[in-house]
Write a structure and sequence with these properties.
This protein is an alpha/beta fold and 1128 residues long. 52% of the residues lie in helices and 10% in strands. A hairpin with a 4-residue loop joins strand 20 and strand 21. 41% of the residues are buried.
Length: 1128
């Protein structure tokens, strides 16, 4: 496939630092490879003239393989090109590696340049600790540091205050956690000790006014954002009351008073902290509202009121305390914070010294030592940096959005202060903040760099790759629909505009096909006195049934040969935020539907029978006098001892170890087991754990035994994964059986999972976390677990750390024996919460963009109807940032745009689109494509096509349609079971004429499809059928029809009854309930208790011929008795 113009710019642009913002599926790896080859073929560079950084070893190996594969292809095309042939030898020596690998190589060559630490120096044969070893060493060093801390506590007032407040007296655990957490957070800074000193300087001087501090300014701006939002929302609510005088009288003036007060908060904030706190408004008591006709508006207004009150209560909680009291809290806690920072600095120095003494490093050390070698005290490149940089024509960084300040400092030193830096990534896919990734690095460049076409020589520039070649148009439209609404710079850390949205680029790969639209299934769970429901189990069962439906109906996906084929379980992935606690429920639900599944998640690894048995076997090889693992091995498929047999053995010696009883038994089975166990125990003296494990597999035929069980391939894969992990531990110096078993036991006791990951190429539906899916793609993605509440546990710690705001602490009052958050902790918690939700939003983006062809979202939650009602108060298009920030779970971000869409059609939006000749929804073009049965028209197009018809001169909904009457007459003569051809032709002729006055009549379209199908014209039949289905889907997407606030919007009376007929719902006559909404009751309520449906007829009365455009409907409403609720 040829390069797009944007890709060409990214490949060939030179002259300065280049940032490539590559959207999901836009071919960023292809661009990186092509850029490398452009240097080699056009400028004579060698493949090893470049430093290419990736973020995982697997990614580095994959990229090297792609470069080698492309080299092989080009050499085959040009066998006489000697320069290319030489690159075949150099590609495996090229610096294509992770940051850690580069830093390790740099240090082994230059470690002698580092200064000694306490008379010890690192040598080139240093070893890198794995995370478990590093954690153990940190604990040991910290124990010694705390011993010294407590030994000198009587002479250090600050230290005593720290121990008695945040340290919980002499209980080491609380203080240990504080020091380790602060130490870990400092590792994202290029110079951790310098940052600790900066924080000490901040806490050593108490400010005179809170707005002079970063935390104070943040809280004031946060309060003003909320005030602006609720001021607008209150005014909107008042506008909504205008048609309901009783509601306006009870609520209107109170809402307007509060809105006006909120508008003036910004002026009050300029006068100071206390002025803002005193100006937060309090609502006057609301009046009473009676009458069913006012109920809906009253309920909406009350919902706005309650949520606004809650927001104002949060603001009041922060600003009601006088500024001086808040400053006094900081003065009281400052000594403890200074002691904590000094203690952390001492621990950092001692930990570093201990590592140097042992000639080891942890992962962060490699990068920090590299900075020491490559930069001087002012951050400028050293002679070594210039020497290393001279080796490279350019530094290329993949997945740049996942870098942190430490790594960016290294890149800058090696790339002539970024003049020779090529960075590619997508900040919308930055989801590793918990690993200290800093997306603001990418964002700052993205916002400040000029487009490459406008850049001058030496000026940093950017290129945007927004064409997606991975997914169908429907997947991209759905993703864009959500993120255009919810992502913004205020909430999401970047705007999602025309430059950021995804554009369809796979036209050839994905021809249009019905049924590919994304789905959201919202399941509301309501417990009863008789029965309670497990949300996870219900969601899992629904998901399994939906997958079974896809398989049974042979849902079509594109095969590798480009031709459609039925979907297979291996094409489907279930993505969750965190599968660990839900894996069993989903596995059981899928098995119930006879659907194979597989999971490479390590969380479930040791719960599998094969892994559990092998770990138990290793435990008894190390020490056979452990009853539980011994019995587990005997009962396992490897030996098959029955419960009765085990009871007989225990009867030989009821007391003591079970092993003693086993030794007394004279059966052949126990003798064989004892003989094997003794042989393995002898072998363990000389073998590493991995070799011993393989001997165990061989002697017991473990691979064959477990491989013959259900899911045998996955079970064998698990056994191989355990063996591989044991080999990794042996290579890290923990090869002995005792060390290996002890490490596994300690990790599992602590609830931590050893890093064992199996391949996911097994058969069946895959279940995995969103994080693990990054970089992958699947024909069908089912996103579940959307109701999972955002985790806020990390923000409840006594001390929080923020890279820009610093430390936020609790105030501990020893005399009153109370603790509460200081203003610093309130600010840091608010900032971290907002940033965490921004990351959660990017995780949602990653999940949605994994789908190639079909995207299905499933959300199951308790009291779902109430949640919908709460969200509808906040919904708008686009969703205001403060409404987005108020989301409780990822599912809210899907529902908010949909609830906003339920308020659409929006007149201003429709008119702007259909009347703009440059718009894709320009009405003459849309209508022409509709008449030509253009199958590429999307659901979005149909929205503007259907509702845009209301603005066309031929839209006359209240005029009679003689052609429609003739159409009904022809239908009356039609024998549906054996139609005569003349009658079919009459239906086609009359129906075609009827469409001139109502081109979107579902009933007419349906019978035209039927008539053409009966006459053998399948193409025409399909065209009319698709038109009908898309019109009905358009109406359904305008609301849910279940409330007056969320009606279905229609253009013709008949469309309402056509929709219900299509759903096979018998109904009675409609009733008018407001100037725009009518209610059509069912003949009988359904199993969910739905009694009828609401339709918005407002557009019909915009053009009442004798009254002119958009006349209010009062001419009819005032002369008919309003509909009354049948509620008892």
């Amino acid at each position: 496939m040829p390069l797009t113009p944007q890709q060409e710019t990214a490949v060939y642009n030179r002259g300065g630092s280049l940032l490539v913002s590559a959207a999901a599926g836009s071919g960023k790896t292809k661009v990186l490879v092509e850029r490398l080859f452009s240097y080699m073929e056009q400028e004579g560079c060698q493949v090893d003239d470049f430093l290419i950084i990736t973020y995982t070893k697997a990614a580095a190996a994959e990229l090297r393989g792609k470069i080698a594969q492309e080299l092989t292809r080009r050499v085959a095309e040009r066998p006489g090109d000697g320069h290319l042939r030489r690159q075949m030898l150099r590609v495996y020596q090229a610096d294509i590696k992770t940051v850690d690998a580069f830093c390790a190589g740099l240090l082994r060559e230059n470690v002698h340049l580092l200064p000694p630490v306490e008379e010890h120096s690192l040598t080139p044969d240093f070893r890198v600790l794995d995370e478990q070893e590093a954690a153990l060493l940190r604990r040991r060093v910290l124990d010694r540091v705390l011993e010294d801390f407590y030994a000198g506590i009587e002479e250090d007032e600050n230290a005593r205050l720290l121990a008695e407040t945040l340290g919980a007296g002499r209980d080491d655990r609380a203080l240990e956690a504080l020091v380790l957490d602060l130490h870990q957070k400092t590792q994202s800074h290029p110079h951790p000790l310098r940052w600790l000193e900066e924080l000490k300087r901040d806490w050593a001087r108490t400010p005179e006014h809170l707005p002079d501090t970063g935390c104070g300014r943040y809280l004031m701006e946060d309060a003003l954002r909320k005030a602006d939002f609720w001021s607008r929302r209150l005014n909107q609510a008042v506008e909504d009351m205008e048609d309901y005088p009783a509601v306006y009288k009870a609520y209107g003036d109170r809402f307007l008073e509060a809105a006006q007060a909120l508008e003036h908060l910004r002026d009050k904030a300029e006068q100071g902290w206390d002025s803002l706190g005193q100006a937060v408004p309090v609502f006057r008591r609301m009046g009473a509202v009676r009458g069913d006709e006012n109920a809906a508006c009253r309920d909406r207004s009350k919902a706005v009121l309650e949520q606004c009150k809650k927001a104002l209560k949060d603001i009041q909680a922060t600003f009601s305390v006088p500024e001086e009291e808040l400053l006094e809290d900081l003065r009281q806690m400052a000594p403890a914070m200074l002691a904590l920072l000094s203690l952390t600095a001492r621990f950092t120095l001692r930990y570093q010294a201990e590592k140097v003494r042992r000639n080891v490093m942890d992962f962060s050390d490699q990068e920090h030592y590299a900075i020491d070698l490559l930069t001087d005290g002012q951050g400028q490149p050293t002679d070594l940096a210039r020497q290393v940089a001279s080796r490279y024509r350019e530094v290329m960084v993949d997945e740049y959005q996942d870098s942190n300040q430490v790594q960016n400092c290294i890149f800058r030193a090696l790339s002539d202060r970024e003049r020779r830096l090529f960075a590619v990534g997508d900040v919308k896919q930055s989801i590793y903040r918990f690993r200290l990734a800093d997306p603001t690095i990418f964002l700052e460049k993205y916002l400040s760099y000029v487009p490459a076409a406008e850049a001058e020589e030496g000026q940093p520039r950017k290129v945007l790759l927004s064409r997606n070649f991975r997914s169908r148009r429907e997947v991209l439209d759905g993703t864009n629909f959500v993120f255009r609404s919810v992502m913004s710079r205020e909430m999401g850390e970047m705007d999602y505009g025309d430059d950021e949205q995804l554009y369809f680029g796979a036209e050839a790969a994905y021809p249009p096909r019905p049924g590919m639209e994304p789905e959201l299934h919202f399941i509301s769970v309501e417990n009863t006195q008789e029965e309670s429901f497990d949300r996870t189990e219900m969601e899992a069962r629904f998901t399994a049934r939906r997958i079974r439906q896809l398989l049974n109906e042979k849902f079509q996906v594109q095969g590798e040969d480009g031709r459609p084929r039925p979907v297979e379980p291996e094409d489907i992935v279930i993505l969750m935020r965190s599968p660990r606690a839900r894996l069993a429920a989903y596995t059981a639900a899928l098995r119930r539907e006879n659907i194979p599944c597989t999971s490479g998640e390590s969380e479930a690894f040791f719960s599998t029978p094969e892994a559990a048995v092998m770990v138990s076997f290793l435990q008894i090889i190390d020490n056979p006098r452990q009853d539980v693992p011994l019995i587990a091995v005997l009962r396992s498929p490897l030996f098959g001892f029955s419960a009765d047999r085990l009871a007989l053995i225990r009867a030989l010696q009821p007391e003591g170890d079970y092993y003693d009883a086993l030794c007394l038994d004279d059966g052949a089975d126990t003798a064989d087991f004892r003989r094997l166990l003794e042989e393995l125990r002898l072998a363990a003296r000389d073998m590493t754990a991995d070799r011993l494990l393989w001997k165990l597999y061989t002697e017991c035929h473990a691979l064959a035994v477990f491989g013959a069980m259900e899911g045998g391939a996955a079970r064998k894969e698990n056994l191989i994964a355990l063996y591989t992990y044991a080999g990794q531990q042996a290579a890290a110096g923990r090869g002995g059986l005792f060390d290996f078993v002890t490490q596994l036991h300690d990790l599992l006791e602590e609830g931590r999972q050893p890093p064992i990951t199996t391949r996911t190429a097994g058969s069946g539906v895959q279940i995995m976390s969103v994080h693990r899916s990054k970089g992958l793609e699947f024909p069908v993605v089912i996103l579940t677990d959307l109701h999972k509440t955002f985790n806020a546990d990390d923000f409840r710690r006594p001390v929080l750390v923020h890279p820009r705001l610093g430390l936020g602490t609790e105030r501990v009052d020893r005399e009153k024996r109370i603790r509460y958050d200081t203003v610093t902790k309130t600010a840091v918690a608010a900032a971290l919460t907002r940033e965490s939700k921004s990351e959660e939003m990017r995780i949602l983006y990653v999940a949605l963009t994994r789908a190639k062809e079909k995207l299905i979202c499933v959300q199951c939650m308790a009291h779902g109807r109430k949640r919908l009602a709460d969200l509808s108060v906040l919904a708008d298009m686009p969703t205001p940032p403060e409404a987005v920030a108020g989301a409780k779970c990822p599912g809210d971000w899907l529902l908010l745009p949909l609830l906003s869409a339920a308020k659409v059609p929006v007149e201003s939006d429709i008119k702007a689109r259909i009347e703009d000749p440059a718009s894709e929804q320009y009405y003459p073009n849309l209508r022409l494509r509709y008449e030509q049965a253009d199958s590429t028209l999307t659901a979005d197009d149909y929205h503007y096509l259907y509702y845009g018809y209301a603005y066309q001169p031929q839209y006359r909904p209240l005029e009679t349609n003689p052609a429609l009457d003739r159409f009904y007459e022809t239908l009356a003569r039609l024998n549906v079971d054996a139609p005569a051809d003349t009658d079919l032709l009459a239906v086609i002729e009359a129906g075609t004429e009827a469409l001139e006055a109502d081109p979107f009549s579902p009933q007419v379209l349906n019978f035209l499809s039927f008539a053409h199908a009966q006459r053998g014209d399948t193409a025409q039949a399909a065209a009319y059928r698709d038109k009908m289905n898309l019109v009905l889907a358009t109406i359904e997407s305008s609301g849910d029809g279940l409330t007056e606030e969320t009606p279905w919007h229609i253009l013709m009376y008949a469309h309402a009854f056509d929709l219900l007929a299509a759903k096979n719902i018998p109904v009675r006559e409609s009733s008018i309930i407001s100037r725009t909404v009518e209610y059509i009751p069912r003949v009988k309520k359904d199993e969910k208790g739905v009694k009828g449906y609401y339709f918005d007829y407002g557009r019909i009365y915009w053009k009442k011929p004798e009254q002119g455009y958009k006349r209010e409907r009062s001419w009819q409403f005032n002369n008919l008795k309003p509909w009354k609720s049948d509620k008892k």
